[in-house]
Design brief:
The complex is a heterodimer. By secondary structure, chain A is of the alpha/beta class. Chain A has one domain: Glutaredoxin (3-Layer(aba) Sandwich). Chain A is 41% helix and 19% strand. The mean pLDDT of chain A is 83. Among the domains of chain B are: 166 residues, no CATH class; 101 residues. The chains are: A alpha/beta, B alpha+beta. Chains A and B meet through α2, α4 and α5 of A and α12, α13, α14, β9 and β10 of B.
Chain lengths: 175, 663
């Protein structure tokens, strides 16, 4: 019996290892298939800049756009922010910001400091819309077409390479 | 030609490492002295060829040989030469080569400084380290060769090193971190060798103690450097993010801390032997797990290297062999606990065990938070993220409890503490800690802040007990102040480390509770006030760096009308990548940092500016340095350099002589 107890660490390790093998096949940036090609969920959330003003799904859709999930607590968002600014300013991409589980003052300060690339900013303090959209962290970026259908999701930082190899082709493909 | 030479050296190193992994180990079973004695020279050979390969990588980087993929991806002709050198560990392939170089370095150090070990033990230890080296060299040669070329069409100019990494902190942070991470392979190898040899005694623990302490001290410094870098380089004053990659280095630290203490008990008292071996296996396993998480791309993180499934698979298989194999060996060979040696509650052993359990639990909570998104995804439970709120809520209370036991243990002796009077011993420091802990943050902050009070009470508790314990222990030797010098260096290392821990805790509490910040719009000549400080933006001028253009602000800070500091915040645009970086202007002080970052330029020459006053933020890193110094000081204990005597009776006698005085 005493000897069997010593096998315990090994017995704990094996299932963990199996899970890790399985995790390797999973792409953390993959969109859960349930949401792909489905309409963006409806919502009613305040604007980041104007707490009184409620934004709805209808206020956003109309042309194709990127919906960028970000927060001031997210260091990767800091890294990608200059690229968002570049996309909005130099390439004229419409980007909607989804400020996710954040503090309003901190978020406003950030946009003031680092320039605001967002055509509209939705303030999702409880992560409600984030939950509906299957967000699991920040930054994440959704590509939504003019009919309001989610066509693609990118998890992680947007940079030059991601833009040229991933997002730009997707944006060109859809209407 | 040079890159091919580099690959060739790596292949040679691999061949030698295979021989080290097999021959001395085989010799130890056949009792062939010649075969066992081959371990040291062969290890030196592995190190030599790995070092040559690394030197050649530096040469191609300095020569801007862009036909080498790695150089093209992470360097640039405009890069200053010291960053070309640090680019050697700025990317996946190069940093892996540094990993192996450091592993080979530790192996050679073990070979050089373990002359007094029994031959068979030394042969086994070096063979185990050779096996790990084989694994990583194979990994480099099969999936991540830094010398791979893109002939005949290669780019005329490199991509540039990520500007975030072009920084003094990042020159030192990865090597330091790897020294720690990889250094845990030494206690691991000692533990496996002891299991193989069937000799898990106090001597084994004493041999691995200095190595463990040293690796642990390096890891401490590496983590502190990383935190310091994030603080000034990311430009917004944060210093710890619970990012998966940070956790990957923090988990081995927590487990390593438990190991350092458990080794002390096994060394001095000969108990907890299986437990200590298990901790040694866990600590190195977590280092490998960290490598897997960082390199495989299963987690998204700002630090993560480019994902490549074949790499992930390789490390995972390697991890499986190393961890699974050593746990199996543990199950088969670890000594069963026969004598359920009754632990006296008021004994140092018992308190160290409690401390071990808390550290293990803390490590598991971090592990759980880090792996949960992966596990949930693998089990189709959905996609989740685990952020700072979870870690702060679960982890911080554990640290408070830990500090209670750390403080109390300063009074205790091995086996049992005689004449321990709860009230007399604990009451005075407890009252003093409560008084100081309540008074200090309240007077400093001018208001009652319960979190700050709670943190400071526990911090003072730890410091007061540690100091009073040292005084009492030296008085026991009846020599008064001179008695202080009688305490061993290990003991002073402990005192230093524990005080360092309290300093970190105090820094964390004060800076999170009393930092203030403000976002303002400033035109040249205008000023903003924050707390008692007045920040005036004198001017913003264009400055040309070696590979970037920058807008540099000149900010004068006044306190009560007196100029106390000048800050130079920058907004840099790197020429090669076009990336814009914020360099904060910081005036560092022991009691407060003034932190100012430039935002974007607004109309009319004004700038969006964020000003922060962060009290006691330096204490975080200062405490980290103290902890590391404590570890290094303990290594200096002459007792490790005495002729290592084989045999239990002798080591027990020594243990009893030093009883109560050293940990």
């Amino acid at each position: 019996m005493g000897r069997l107890k010593l096998f315990l660490p090994l017995l704990v390790f094996i299932p963990l290892a199996i899970l890790l093998i399985r995790a390797l096949d999973l792409d953390p940036s993959e969109l859960p298939s349930a949401l792909l090609d489905k309409p963006m969920p409806g919502f009613e959330l305040p604007s980041l800049q104007e707490p009184e003003r409620m934004l709805r799904r209808e206020d956003l859709v109309g042309e194709k756009m990127l919906v960028n999930v970000w927060a001031t607590w997210c260091p990767s968002c800091m890294v990608e922010h200059p690229w968002l600014v570049k996309l909005a300013r130099d390439y004229g991409v419409k980007i909607v910001g989804l400020n996710y589980k954040d503090e309003r003052q901190a978020a406003l300060g950030w946009l003031q400091r680092y320039e605001n690339p967002f055509a509209l900013s939705v303030y999702d303090v409880d992560g409600k819309l984030g939950l509906d959209m299957g967000v699991y962290g920040a930054p994440e970026t959704f590509v939504v077409d003019s009919a309001g259908i989610i066509r693609f999701k990118h998890v992680g930082v947007i940079d030059d390479k991601v833009w040229q190899e991933v997002l730009q082709p997707v944006l060109q493909e859809i209407d | 030609m040079i890159p091919e030479l580099g690959s060739f050296c790596l292949v040679l190193a691999l061949c030698l490492a295979v021989v080290v992994a097999v021959v001395p180990l085989w010799g130890s079973y056949k009792n062939q002295g010649v075969l066992m004695a081959m371990a040291s020279p062969l290890t030196a050979g592995v190190f030599t060829f790995t070092a040559i390969a690394f030197a050649l990588l530096l040469v191609v980087l300095i020569n801007d040989d862009f036909s080498v993929n790695y150089v093209a991806a992470s360097s640039n002709t405009q890069l200053p030469v010291y960053y070309k050198i640090s680019a050697a560990w700025g990317g996946h392939e190069g940093s892996l080569l540094l990993w192996v170089l450091i592993l080979a370095g530790w192996s050679v150090a073990v070979a050089a400084f373990s002359k007094s070990l029994p031959l068979a033990m030394r042969a086994r230890v070096l063979s185990i380290m050779g096996m790990i080296t084989v694994g990583f060299l194979l990994f480099i040669l099969m999936t991540s060769n830094p010398f791979a070329r893109s002939l005949p069409f290669f780019p005329p100019e490199g991509n540039d090193l990520n500007p975030l990494l072009q920084d003094i902190g990042l020159i030192f942070h990865p090597p330091m971190l790897y020294l720690g991470y990889v250094g845990f392979s030494v206690p691991f190898a000692f533990a496996i060798a002891a299991l193989l040899g069937g000799r898990l005694d106090a001597a084994w623990a004493r041999w691995s103690r200095p190595w463990t302490n040293l690796a642990w001290a390096c890891l401490t410094l590496g983590i502190a450097l990383g935190s310091w870098w994030a603080y000034y380089e990311l430009g917004w004053g944060g210093w710890w993010f619970w990012d998966p990659v940070e956790n990957a280095s923090f988990m081995p630290w927590l487990m390593g801390t438990a190991l350092v203490h458990s080794l002390a008990v096994t060394d001095k008292r000969g108990v907890f032997r299986s437990w200590t071996v298990l901790l040694a296996i866990f600590t190195f396993s977590l280092s490998l797990l960290g490598t897997f998480l960082v390199r495989s791309g299963v987690l998204t993180s700002v630090h993560a290297f480019a994902a490549d499934p074949s790499r992930g698979m390789f490390i995972l298989v390697f991890l499986f062999i190393v961890v699974g194999g050593s746990l199996l060996l543990f199950a088969l060979r670890a000594p069963q606990v026969t004598q359920s040696s009754r632990l006296n509650f008021l004994s140092l052993e018992n308190f160290l065990l409690i401390n071990n359990v808390i550290l293990l639990a803390a490590c598991l909570t971090v592990l759980f938070g880090t792996l949960f998104p992966i596990v949930a995804d693998a089990l189709d439970l959905g996609k989740y993220s685990v952020g700072a709120p979870y870690f702060n809520a679960v982890f911080l209370p554990m640290m408070l409890v830990l500090m209670v036991f750390m403080g109390t243990s300063a009074w205790l002796s091995w086996k049992q503490t005689r004449a321990f009077n709860w009230q007399r011993t604990l009451l005075v420091p407890a009252l003093a800690a409560m008084l100081l802990g309540f008074a200090f943050p309240s007077v400093y902050g001018g208001e009652f802040n319960w979190k700050a009070v709670l943190g400071s009470v526990f911090g003072f508790w730890l410091v007061l007990h540690t100091v009073a314990g040292a005084v009492q222990k030296s008085r026991l030797s009846r020599r008064g102040v001179a008695g202080l010098t009688k305490l061993s260096r290990s003991y002073w290392g402990m005192v230093l480390g524990h005080i360092g821990f309290a300093v970190v805790a105090f820094g964390v509490i004060m800076t999170t509770q009393f930092s203030v910040e403000r976002d303002v719009k400033l035109a040249p000549g205008q000023s903003a006030t924050l707390g008692d400080y007045e920040f005036r933006l004198d001017q913003v001028s264009a400055v040309e760096g070696s590979n970037y253009l920058s807008d540099m602000g000149f900010v004068t800070v006044k306190l009560n009308g007196e100029t106390v500091a000048t800050l130079y915040p920058e907004k840099r645009r790197y020429l090669a990548s076009g990336q814009v970086m914020t360099e904060a202007g910081i005036d560092a002080g022991l009691f407060r940092d003034l932190y100012l970052s430039l935002g974007e330029q607004l109309e009319g020459g004004a700038w969006a500016v964020r000003v922060q006053v962060k009290p006691f933020v330096r204490w975080l890193w200062l405490g980290g340095i103290l902890i590391a110094l404590g570890g290094i000081w303990a290594v200096m204990d002459p007792r490790y350099r005495k002729k290592l005597v084989v045999g239990r009776s002798r080591s027990k006698a020594q243990g009893n002589l030093a009883a109560g005085a050293s940990v």
